[in-house]
Amino acid sequence: MQQIRSQVTERDGLFELEAGTDVLDSPRYNHDMAPTKVHERTWNKWHITALWIGMSICVPTYTLGGVLTAYFGLSVGEALLAILFANLIVLIPLTLNAFAGTKYGIPFPVLLRSSFGILGSNVPCLIRALVACGWFGIQTMFGGLAIHLFLGSIFDGWKSLGGTGEVIGFMAFWALNLWVVLRGAESIKWLETLSAPLLVAVGIGLLVWAMPNVSMTELLAIPPKRPEGASVVSYFAAGLTAMVGFWATLSLNIPDFSRYAKSQKDQILGQIFGLPLTMFLFAALGVVMTAASVKLVGVTVSDPVSLIGHIQSPVWVAVAMALIIIATLSTNTAANIVSPTNDFQNIAPKVINRTKAVMLTGVVGLLLMGHELLKKLGWIVSEVSLETVYSNWLLGYSSLLGPIAGIMVVDYFLIKKQQLDLAGLYRDDVYPAWNWFGFIAFGAPVVLTLLSLGSDAFSWFYSYGWFTGSALGGVIYYGLCSMRTSPSVAKSSV
């Protein structure tokens, strides 16, 4: 006989929900959104390290150095330092926001119900989902190009398809991504664990190929593309903010993965081992490879897929493209599909299950790349490049996501003091439908950011958007909650 009231038990600091009919019948619950059982939390520090290696080694990471030098006026050395510092900084919200996922086994949208309300959580969820779908489309474009070049290295006739072949590759890679995620979290863990050593080997191989054709001394001596005599501080800070924005999305939805971690120690060490150094080294590799590309293939090429496509040996092209397909697949499935899948389910868990949410993510990502696909088919002509799109996204979206990160950390650690009503997060009778304190704390920094765009005196507020937004959002939220006379949510029911 099914128990009526849910029970929460605790084992070694990890909480587990035995759902009763009060939760099972709730419109806020489905099986995919349910807290993981303790025995399902099987990811150790090496699995999480592999997850971050798999997500970090990708085409956009490779091009980050070029983005910072071309769009943010930094020298090569300054760009690499900005990337390293940014990933050390982003470790802070990543590890902090991961705590609740590991302790309670809950995904990102369910955690947001504490700070934004049971229904209000859908607003930050959909903001997060949109940028993930955009990145999914961008990464799928790179993966589709790799498939096109792979097939072109095997079949001579395929090369003549040109842009049409790239679109076919896009659709094939699109379907492959969705298939992996539909197989579940263990499939993603297996993919990341398998791909991590392969991706490290690819990086080493590319470096060995490039180093004889580039002088590091000359590379580091290239002057930055900013006005002569201009202070490096503002340019560096803007670049730093953009690089923080690269993983600002994951710093929010890291509970989607930490809910599978064996312990807090595993999630913390796995992220420290896997993220900062991998990002720095692969971005540095991109700078070196781009500089060496002139001698290697005769032209400057800023992405590895196109660079390897210039190699004359069909065998090496085929091998390299297969590895790049694995690299892009490991990044895309974990970083860009898992989150919107959970976010879309949060809208109506009883109506939208994981399969429907995965397909919805795929459709939105496809639509966002429609402009680029039509260009490749030759149906429209446009000067807008993918590189411009995602370099602008990094800064703009980090300004929106910063306040959410600040609010989440303050709510969990300072307001709720790491105590959540686990069953209450899946019902309508414990947390409010809309937590207006969360929306005020989120809206104020966003409004100030938009206003700063039209003011030279306050342009710094936008340029440093993630830092200003997260700090201000957290402070406002703490102030509003501290003024509330009624006590906050009760501690976890056991």
Automatic annotation (TrEMBL):
Membrane topology, record value = Multi-pass membrane protein
Q: Where, subcellularly, is it found?
A: Membrane
Classification via InterPro entries:
Pur-cyt_permease, Uracil/uridine/allantoin_perm
Q: Name the source's superkingdom.
A: Bacteria
Gene Ontology CC, one term: plasma membrane
What are the record keywords, sorted?
Membrane, Transmembrane, Transmembrane helix
Pfam families for the chain = Transp_cyt_pur
Q: Which GO terms describe its molecular function?
A: nucleobase transmembrane transporter activity
Q: Give the record's family classification.
A: Belongs to the purine-cytosine permease (2.A.39) family.
Query: What's the protein here called?
Result: Nitrate reductase
- Which organism does this record belong to? Pseudomonas prosekii
Q: What does the record give as the organism's lineage?
A: Bacteria, Pseudomonadati, Pseudomonadota, Gammaproteobacteria, Pseudomonadales
